[in-house]
Amino acid sequence: MVANRPLMRICLSLAVAVSVSQRAAAADDFPSIFTRATAYVAEFKAQFAAVIWHEEYEQVDRLPLQFGASGGRFTRASRRRLESEMLFIPADANATWLTVRDVIAVDGKPVPRRLPEILAARDVKMRDLRALSEQNGKYNIGAIARNFNEPTLALLFLDSRYRPRFEFSDGGSDLVDGQPVRRIQFTETTTPTVIRSQQRDVRASGALLVEPATGRVLRTEMTLLQDQRRTRGHITVSYGMNAKLGRMVPVAMNEWYGYTWSRPEEGTSCTAKYSDFRRFETTGRVVP
């Protein structure tokens, strides 16, 4: 029996190594990563509630034109720069959260604000915040009207209310700034869709790039398609750690909107940068 002890120790070591390897593989499988990502989004909603921040938003709209006689094609560009305050707040029973844009300046010129007045009221009304979001969509340029262009939109699809509306799949491994991530692919499968334009469905698809070990979302990539008008859009949002809040926040958003036949250099291109994250306080209560 003494002679067999070294062999037993080797077998035991191999069994422990296999067990550790199996646990690591199980923790890194797609269902486990997906579960951690959904838990992260639930935590994000709770911890990011009542946060306000600053947005600098640059838009360039390139309209394709054509000479009548020669048929030559060229683009005419228009630009707009917006400064806004963004507010993330838990919403009513119709949605899980609401991100509101309150435009404070257009091309460097101040414009009337409503958000401070809304938040100072005894009752902070969600319908007023929604109306403000709709109203400030008028400052966007380009042929495609939009008020959904806010950085936390793709995270909403992992919320328990919205997950059944999407099909999720493993998009494989990737890198974000040299950091290993897993791609969670999503495709919207139900109607009416989450995003609507002039009573028409706008289908969303794309990916959330998450840290496998934590489920933290480092980047979201979303494609929007409206079949009847043959319009499409692409929205990419990058996230980074904010030392003041001690959590991940959106730091940049890049967008493109155009028609299915548009060339890459045409359409509306937008770039947003975010800063000055802080919590807001109000003595009012949030009501529908």
Describe this structure as you would to a colleague.
By secondary structure, the protein is of the alpha+beta class. The protein has one domain (28-287). It is built from four helices and 14 strands. Strands 1, 2, 3, 4, 6, 7, 8, 9, 10, 11, 12 and 13 form a twelve-stranded antiparallel β-sheet that branches. The protein has a two-stranded parallel ribbon with strand order 5-14. The protein starts with a helix and ends with a strand.
Helix content: 10-25%
What's the helix count?
Answer: 4
Described by the principal axes of the CA atoms, the overall outline is globular
**Overall pLDDT:** 86
Number of domains as seen in the coordinates: 1
Parts with pLDDT < 50 across at least 5 consecutive residues: 17-26
- Provide the structure class: alpha+beta
- C-alpha Rg, in Å? 23 Å
Order of helices and strands: HHEEEEHEHEEEEEEEEE
* Percentage of β-strand residues: over 45%
**Number of beta strands:** 14
Largest sheet: 12 strands, antiparallel
Distance between the termini: 77 Å
Task: Describe the structure concisely.
By secondary structure, the chain is of the alpha+beta class.
